[in-house]
Specification:
Length: about 200
């Protein structure tokens, strides 16, 4: 006999559709929610709904924002000739926290991963090329994660843009290989940005 109440099973099925969340993790999350004081749990769900309603991607750079155009893209004092290419919005948020960067960002929305079926068409690569053509871009800094997939993604885009008259650089390996940008501390990230290497 299956004793799992339908409403719980439904939540578990929904959560386990998220990448990286298996059935067991989804179960744990559902149980933890049910164990929370009801008011707090309802508050959490309300905030989730609010986030889904308010947050979308910046029309220019693809970063998470509550505005049509994000604070970086709409800031006239930013250096529009430099674009830092990251996998996810939170990578850009981390770099921004270092206060060492004054250019623009471009969020790919992931990295190439043939195993997970993520090809170039699933990433915001075309819009990056469009921006390079449209803006007077002089430098592209790849700040994809120092992982095999992150490297492959940077190399793929590098090949597409290497004939443009721009400087192409990559964050230096002050970052641990196999690590995740989001987990790096401010100092390591600032150093890596300072020591970026020119690729072309
Ligand atoms: Zn933007």
């Amino acid at each position: 006999m299956n004793l799992v109440p339908d409403s719980i099973q439904q939540v578990i099925s929904e959560i386990s559709r998220l990448p990286g969340y298996g059935e067991k993790t989804a179960q744990r999350l559902a149980v933890n929610l049910l164990k929370m004081p009801k008011g707090e749990a309802v508050d959490l769900v309300r905030h989730l709904a609010l986030m889904l309603d308010k947050v979308h991607l910046c029309r220019e750079c693809g970063i998470f924002t509550e505005k049509e155009i994000c604070d970086v893209c709409s800031d006239e004092s930013r250096d529009r000739s430099v674009i830092c290419v990251v996998e996810e919005s939170f990578d850009a948020f981390m770099i921004e926290n270092t206060d060492k960067y004054n250019g623009l960002y471009h969020v790919l929305g992931g990295r190439l991963s043939p195993l997970e079926g993520i090809g170039p068409e699933k990433l915001n690569i075309k819009s990056l090329i469009d921006r390079i053509k449209k803006l007077n871009v002089k430098e592209i800094i790849f700040a994809t994660n120092p992982t095999v997939e992150g490297e492959a993604t940077a190399n793929y885009i590098h090949n597409l843009i290497k004939n443009y008259p721009i400087t192409i650089s990559r964050l230096a390996y002050g970052l641990p290989f196999g690590g995740i940008l989001e987990n790096a501390d401010d100092f390591t990230l600032a150093k890596a940005l300072e020591n970026k290497q020119i690729l072309k």
